Amino acid sequence: MDLSFLEQASIWGQVFEIAVKRGVLQHLIQQKLVLDDHPVLQPWQSVKNADVYHQLVKAFKLTDPNTKEWVETMLRHLLVLGYGLGWTTMRECLKHSGIRKAKLEAIWCPLTLPTQEMQRDEEKEETAKAFQAAFNLPGKPVMVQNRQFDKQFESN
Description:
Elements: H1 5-30, H2 42-46, H3 49-60, H4 65-95, H5 120-134, H6 147-155
């Protein structure tokens, strides 16, 4: 692994985010707030735990069988923990919202795998457009540059 600590932490963070989002989505499905065939679920339904594992092996450039086994164990742990956190958070959020019959009018829940390259400007613009479309917002997205963040991110 030639990655810095920050890069490794970012990859593990992406995996945890996947797990949390899965828990949230599954709770929304269980509550019938999102239908199984909703377009936002397509990427989520096609990506399996094994796919996430292979993305981790690729991202970390792993070759040692013992390290791969350790990563697989950590992955399973994070997936269970994150899923439970997402499910519980969504359940409690809905329970304490004060709304008797909740209705989901829009959802935006992108799936980003650990090895997906980040083309900073293109990604920001595509993300803004996807968010705008999901929530049917008027106007054109305004792209704001955060040069200080970009410099800090590039230096790590």
